[in-house]
Amino acid sequence: STISNYDAAMTYIFTPSGPSAGAGGVISGMAAGTTYTATANDGSCSSAPSAPFSNAPQLASPAIPVISSTPPTCTSDGSSTISNYDAAMTYIFTPSGPSAGAGGVISGMAAGTTYTAAANDGSCSSAPSAPFSNAPQLPVPVATITGLLTYCTGGTTTLTASGGTGYVWMDSAGNTISNNDSIIVTEGTYIVEVTNSSSCSDTASASVTELSNLTVIISGAMNYCPGANTTLTATGGTSYSWSNGSITDSITVTQGTYTVTAADAGCSGTASAVVTELVPAPINLGSDVTACEDSLVILDAGSGYTNYVWSNGDTTRFMQPPTTGTYSVTAADANGCTVSGSVNVAFDECITITIPSAFSPNGDGINDIFRVRSENITEFSMAIFNRWGEKVFETNNINDGWDGYYKNEKAEIGVYAYYASINNRIYKGSITLIR
Question: CA–CA separation, 147 vs 183, rounded Å?
Answer without folding.
Answer: 10
